[in-house]
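Form 7-S
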Amino acid sequence: MMANRVERHMIFATHPYYPMLDEYCFRSKNLYNFANYQVRQTFFQHGTYLSYNKLDKLLKTEGMDTDYRAMPMAQCAQQTLRMLHQNWQSFFKSMKDWAKNKDKYTGRPKPPKYLKKDGRYVLVLTNQSCKVVDEQITFPACFQGFRLKTNMKGKLQQVRFVPKHRHIIVEVVYKIPIPTQKQDNNRYISIDLGLDN
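Output:
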């Protein structure tokens, strides 16, 4: 059995790579908002949901690919679209639950909103783009030599850049094996301390 673990690092505004990472998080927000606009328009005008695969294909077409191509890698763009897809799936799930149990909610659930124009959004890199070499995570060439020292003891899954106010939290997600517990064979030992209560 495997378990996910997260190692967190903070990159402050004084770090030399902060402007580059901040720009990538800004581009991720732009893609999220543009993709959310496409999904919302389809949902409100036609009453249908633009699935992840259709949305990915639509955003790769000529004329609509500006924000998609602005991302550092295609996988980063796909991860942003997957997070938007998860947000919409949560909305549909809450709508079904709201229809059955209206007393659990204060009002009707709302679809995912746009992010702030000057905001930032999470940037995700998978284990296909980053590698662990000599206890350091190496990133693709578009990250201009950025490396991250790590203490992880498992298999790398993904690296998330989570923008906060004046710093970025780097979350390294990895898997570790959980040792199997021995079965209870009803054999117990006890010690009589000889104390009187």
